[in-house]
Amino acid sequence: MKKLAILVSGRGSNFEAIARNIREGRLEAEIVAVVSNSPTAKALETAESLGLRAISLPSKGIETDTYAAMVVEALAPLQVDLICLAGFMRRVGAPLLEAYAQRILNIHPSLLPSFPGLHVQQQALDYGVKFSGCTVHFVDAGLDTGPIVMQAAVPVEDGDTADTLAARILVEEHKIFSQAIALVLSGAYRVDGRRIIRKD
Ligand code: GAR
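A: This is the predicted complex of the input protein with glycinamide ribonucleotide.
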């Protein structure tokens, strides 16, 4: 069974969706650790209540590469196949990128390359786009720049606020993250430049 580590910072609804998809047989994988850089993240409580290994590894005041090395050390005994950033709100430092090259996925609540970074639903509204969505991508050294594995689009409604748009996007996040994880774990894709192409 392929082993996942989930990195979180807060609510953890994407983590919960992954755990649910595993439990209900839609995703063949095992979550071996949920690591939070915030000690108060709700996701840590959820992980414990699901009987999963919950690791609180606070990042406050710690430089990005130093923190990445701490995560590498925490995960080292667990033989992790794939790291999933599920609402993980810190940059990923070089030690983690090197230890898990092409083995870190992130979910981002916009159609990249539009609106990287933070407050992206508000950015989408302010720009006036008629569609937004979410993106699962491999993590590289840039900010939300890695090769795209999967995307889903949702319409932006005239009456939307950042919150209502975020909620519509989140429904799709909960679907495509697990689908993208399954694809990457299966290895049934090839990389052509920036393009991730499914093998038949
Ligand atoms: C999700 O919308 C996720 O896409 C976003 O944070 C939210 C976390 O929700 N991630 C980012 O913005 C990463 N840059 P969750 O904790 O309920 O999964």
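The longest helix spans residues 162-186. The two ends are 23 Å apart (CA to CA).
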